[in-house]
């Protein structure tokens, strides 16, 4: 009997490679989300420090240029926070897309792997059946040969 051959082996191998690539992309997307969230947190921390500085100045005379500088800094940080929030949202969107792509490829790989296992099992059973038939045929021939030897040559009539 010929050896087992799964016709979709090349496709299965390709899908496994694509799944590995998708896993790497998902990891990169997760890292990007972490970096974006860290940047957002840093901007929030900066704003907190500016607010604390302004709060500490309440009740004291503050030079106009200090007040203007603090207001400008707060405004700049506010813009940075909005931009960072957009980056976080975009990074999270990329992460979701990467996770969906990986899940889809994982499903395809699992389906092909299951099909391969089923075909392997079917091939194995057919091979066992063919081997058993060969052994049965060989046993029958040996039995007939032994029987023919015991009976002896047929007597002429």
Key words describing this protein structure:
mainly alpha, rod-shaped, 2 helices, single chain, 157 residues
Spatial extent as radius of gyration: 38 Å
- What proportion of the residues form beta strands (DSSP E)? under 5%
Helix content: over 70%
Uncertain residue ranges? none
| End-to-end gap | 46 Å
Average pLDDT confidence is 92
Number of strand segments: 0
Based on secondary structure, the structural category is: mainly alpha
List the secondary-structure elements in sequence, H or E: HH
Let me know the largest β-sheet: none
Number of helical regions: 2
Global geometry = rod-shaped
Topology of this protein?
Blueprint: H1 9-56, H2 64-151
How does this structure look, described?
There is one protein chain. The chain is mainly alpha-helical and 157 residues long. Helix content is 87%, strand content 0%. The chain has 2 helices and no strands. α1 packs antiparallel against α2. The radius of gyration is 38 Å and the shape is rod-shaped. The mean pLDDT is 92.
Could you give a quick summary of the protein structure above?
Helices cover 87% and strands 0% of the residues.
